[in-house]
Amino acid sequence: MDNINKYKAFAFFKSTAITLPILPIYINSDIGVSVSDIIYYSWISFIVPFFLEIPSGMLSDAIGYIRTLCIATLFFIMSFIVLMMQFELSYVYYILLITVASVLYSGTDMALLYRISEGNQIGKIKAEVDHFFYKYTSLLFLISGVLYSFNVYLPIIFQIISLMISLLFLRSIDIEEKVSRLMPVNRIGLRLFYIRPYIVPLLLFSSLFIFGLNVNVRTISIQFFENNNNVYYICILFIFTNFISSLSAKYYKERYSEDWNIALVLFYMIASLSIAYLFISIDNIVMLSLGFCLICIVKPVYRSYIYTLYMSFQEKEYDVATTLSYYTLLSSILASFFSFLYGKLFINFQQINIVLSIFIFIVGCISVIYFIVVRSNQYRLNYNSFSTKESYLLRENNQIFLYRNIWIT
């Protein structure tokens, strides 16, 4: 088994798909956490990255991606063990542990894939991995519903076993990891606050999308359950949406081109998400299902394309995790602001989704126009530069903007 297939197996087994459909129901019905409290405590998932995102990226570049992912997986396992204990603050500790795990994963899994692929066609390889992931995790959704109907603890137990198996595949990946020394604090500050203008629309769009996913992933199963009261319908819907996510990732892999117009691709994603959140805001199970399906179509394309754009702006091939951490941190800060507004201004699931629909469309259109006006309409990315460590953007008129001339050193 080559490293790419080992990575696919690792991604499959570390997936939380076996608990994803039923977890909000378990937290709401069995632990007794209300929907409003579920969203309220989500501030932890934004505050923790504020403090740990950059250090975690630097740590993974310093000690190696595989070691960092092993530590992250152990935090994942601990989070589910805590959730099973059902004491008073078990959900709070679960959010804290799983957020630390997610921060350690953030950027590091992509950096490992980048290392495995040696920087060649990373966009297509990421889409290939996503296609495999969405295709084969569908079975886990059905298993989740069956296990939950027998015993509420069984999906979590199987999730822990699955995470342990993922560690075995992760440790079997055979690469020579290149590590970098920890960056001085003064350079962290310079890099953090020096934002290139064509990053702004990506950050705005990413933060809105992160917040929207956070609201819906944590609560949408509860909305389905209240409308239908059938856990099997939720699992079947998750299987179907996983299938269309797989097709979306496959289509992206086959049609992806470095000559794509960045602004146009972003506009398609923005329009689709705006319509999706509008559908979800309607208190009807059919519209709720359609909106959720549309989000699942956009999700794999968004992750592959946006992360590929972010990685094209990194300076050194062994600084990938740190670079992604910068952008994830900034997106999380903006998303935390939206969460604060949610807690102060909105009272129900439908309200926040209709506002999300409007905001994504307005901010998205402004961002796309800004992207075109500033400089990005004519860009195409040269990903072959990853292997030569030059990482540059090439305009159609062949004027070269070297990345090292933009970055503060």
Tell me what the structure shows:
- Helices cover 76% and strands 2% of the residues.
- The protein is mainly α.
- The chain has a single domain, classed as MFS general substrate transporter like domains (Growth Hormone, Chain: A), CATH 1.20.1250.20.
- Strands 1-2-3 form a 3-stranded antiparallel β-sheet.
- A hairpin with a 4-residue loop joins strand 2 (393-395) and strand 3.
- Helix 1 (3-13) packs antiparallel against helix 10 and helix 12 packs across helix 16.
- InterPro entries: MFS_DHA3_Transporter, MFS_trans_sf.
Write the layout of secondary structure elements.
Blueprint: H1 3-13, H2 23-31, H3 35-40, H4 44-63, H5 65-85, H6 90-105, H7 108-117, H8 122-136, H9 138-150, H10 154-172, H11 185-193, H12 200-228, H13 231-255, H14 262-280, H15 285-311, H16 320-345, H17 349-374, E1 379-381, H18 385-388, E2 393-395, E3 400-401, H19 403-406
Antiparallel strand pairs: 1-2, 2-3
Helix pairs in contact: 1-8, 1-10, 2-12, 4-5, 4-6, 4-16, 5-6, 5-7, 5-10, 7-16, 8-13, 8-15, 9-13, 12-15, 12-16, 12-17, 13-15, 14-15, 14-17
Identify the notable features of this structure and list them briefly.
single chain, 409 residues, Growth Hormone, Chain: A, three-stranded antiparallel sheet, disordered C terminus, MFS_DHA3_Transporter, MFS_trans_sf
